[in-house]
Amino acid sequence: MRILIVADKLIGGAGNVAQQLATCFSQQEDNTVFLLIDASDKPKYDLSKVNIIDRRITPVKLKNPIKLITRFVKNTKKLKNTINSCKADVIISFLNTISPEILFSQWRSKTPVIVSERSNPYMEWKKRGWLDKLKWKVSYRRANKIVYQFTNFEPFFKHAYKNNKTCVIPNMIFGDSEDVIIDEKGLNHPVRFAALASLSPVKRIDMMVDMFASLLNKHPQIELNIYGDGPKRTDLEQQVAQLGIQNHVHFHGHILNTHENLCKNDILLMTSEREGFPNAVLDGMKAGLPTVMFRCHEGLSELVVDGENGFLIEQDNKQAFVEKLDYLMDNPQVLNDMKKNTVSMKKKYRQDWVMGQWENCIESVLS
Q1: Domains contained in the chain, CATH given
Q2: Chain segment 6-22, per-residue pLDDT in tens
Q3: Which residues of 65-81 are buried (b: 16+ CB within 10 A; e: fewer)?
């Protein structure tokens, strides 16, 4: 079977999941996998058996409707030639910003197209202009299947697309899920917090640093390890210096040995303004870390069960966020129990189970 997977770039949530899928399918016999993507960054996964088509696919962002439509049509024609050259049996398109071009390019083709939504559709719909909404609604009628990540998103798509056209497939914990042993005696060191994110404005690491600094008065030995890089790194380092907490906040930059690093920590923190299905939570789950994060959307309650494997805080309620962290540090047994729950809950995101869902999805559109 020839599978074409389309994404925007090799970094970020969608790019990582696209790489995981490409890697898994390419390791199966009789599969030929193509990955159409901007390959200027270093791959995170083993793509040695994947045919990489290096092409930058960026959404059209023009205010003039005539220019926008003209550029959109040109992009669609170029994509059509590239995609048709692969002679794929099935196409999987990631990101709703590029899926319309993919769908229109295959309008008269019989090749099945699966659209994988990576973000909160309710929020995406609100911020779209009228022309984008029209483009989205029309193009998605060509999709053979629409995949979303949380059952909480189901009403949005069920309202518009019926006849068994949608399904839920979460992200996967990639690779062998190593056993994480939780010490029954609890922690023998001060709590170590971890952040795994790009240092971009939407992740709001500056807010995280401020909240962490407020905890230091009561818990002077705690640490915050920040894994990731991005445009806000210099500003964040200056913020840490101004607060005088350089000995407690450590910037590790971009890392490849994610699991090994996260295992050195106790709690994963996320302060994002918006999220789809955060892979960082799965990475933390694989390492046995409970997550404390803002509730960007209701779907996250399926991933972080409040009070069991972490806490979901109402958006922007910094006081409640700090109080929950303080509570966990004052109650090490509760933290230990959450770690145990996290280890047991990661089973539902096993690679073999999630890949089975993808295989069923592909089989359904081919049949």
Answers
A1: 2-172+350-366 (3.40.50.2000), 192-348 (3.40.50.2000)
A2: 998 888 888 999 999 99
A3: eeebeeebeebbeebbe
